[in-house]
Amino acid sequence: MTAILQAKPVVQALKEKIQEEVKGLKDKGITPTMGIIRVGQRPDDVYYENSIIKNCQSVGIEAKVYAVPETISMEEFVRLINQANRDSDIHGILIFRPFPAHLDEDIVKHLIDPEKDIDCMNPVNLEKVFEGETEGLVPCTPAAVIETLKYYGYPLQGANVAVIGRSLVVGKPLAMMFLKENSTVTICHSRTKNMPDITKQADIVVAAIGKAKAIDEKYFTEKSVVIDVGINDAGDGKICGDVDYEGVINKVAAITPVPGGVGTVTTTILLKHVLIACKKQTR
């Protein structure tokens, strides 16, 4: 029988710990605060913003929204980011993407203060992960993968791990984070030969390629622990992962569902990062 690694208990455990630490800071007169920068009125951005604010409120974190029109100039946008960087009451900054075409993300990502960069947008924070510093503001999705595995008690030290995908957003930083946990990691990608032979040897397989249901049962054994990072359009109005969930269920040891898996934990990691940033800035 396959164990379904639901996000809900992972999120609950994380939130309880965050809530306790936030209370401790508030007792000292410090209120952890997230600054959300949104450009325009994209419905999905507004929905995401409301969801994050609700999550912040659930653990006692304040949220301040900087909503600006889509027509904002690059000069004005830079000024806004610098304002948030300088504001000592803002401990973590989250900037919604994608940007309108006239706003240069390559410039923006270098402007955000690394100590407030809760979404790991600034390359400085990514570099720290590759230098072995994984306790700070790391990429949220890889952090959610590690949190999920630890919550459900899967030992990472000595584990053989196959990461399918080599993006700078998930695959590569996640591999570094597994190495920090003393796992043995193989990164697989579109040019990997005989990939199923590699993934079948792994204790843990992480799918992070961004292709709907591309990874099927031939990649796993009945002992595989499968972490599905993908969020894709299933073509029927629903979303699905990179793994063919229906095809592998009851043929692997454990699997994260989509939705209701890693993606759900990722939002809570943002809250944890606000707390980490706040404690560092106010100590």
Automatic annotation (TrEMBL):
Annotated ranges, domain Tetrahydrofolate dehydrogenase/cyclohydrolase NAD(P)-binding: 139-281
GO BP terms: L-histidine biosynthetic process; methionine biosynthetic process; purine nucleotide biosynthetic process; tetrahydrofolate interconversion
Single GO term (MF): methylenetetrahydrofolate dehydrogenase (NADP+) activity
Domain Tetrahydrofolate dehydrogenase/cyclohydrolase catalytic residues, every copy: 5-119
Pathway involvement of the protein, from the record: One-carbon metabolism; tetrahydrofolate interconversion
UniProt xrefs under Gene3D superfamilies: Leucine Dehydrogenase, chain A, domain 1 (3.40.50.10860), NAD(P)-binding Rossmann-like Domain (3.40.50.720)
Entry superkingdom: Bacteria
Entry binding sites for NADP(+): 165-167, 231
Recorded catalytic activity of this chain's protein: (6R)-5,10-methenyltetrahydrofolate + H2O = (6R)-10-formyltetrahydrofolate + H(+); (6R)-5,10-methylene-5,6,7,8-tetrahydrofolate + NADP(+) = (6R)-5,10-methenyltetrahydrofolate + NADPH
Cell membrane recorded as keyword: no
Keywords for this protein: Amino-acid biosynthesis, Histidine biosynthesis, Hydrolase, Methionine biosynthesis, Multifunctional enzyme, NADP, One-carbon metabolism, Oxidoreductase, Purine biosynthesis
Gene Ontology cellular-component terms listed: cytosol
EC numbers, comma separated: 1.5.1.5, 3.5.4.9
InterPro entries per record: Aminoacid_DH-like_N_sf, NAD(P)-bd_dom_sf, THF_DH/CycHdrlase, THF_DH/CycHdrlase_cat_dom, THF_DH/CycHdrlase_NAD-bd_dom
Pfam families linked to this entry: THF_DHG_CYH, THF_DHG_CYH_C
PANTHER family: C-1-TETRAHYDROFOLATE SYNTHASE, CYTOPLASMIC, C-1-TETRAHYDROFOLATE SYNTHASE, CYTOPLASMIC-RELATED
Quaternary context: Homodimer.
Chain's role: Catalyzes the oxidation of 5,10-methylenetetrahydrofolate to 5,10-methenyltetrahydrofolate and then the hydrolysis of 5,10-methenyltetrahydrofolate to 10-formyltetrahydrofolate.
Assigned protein family: Belongs to the tetrahydrofolate dehydrogenase/cyclohydrolase family.
Name this protein carries in UniProt: Bifunctional protein FolD
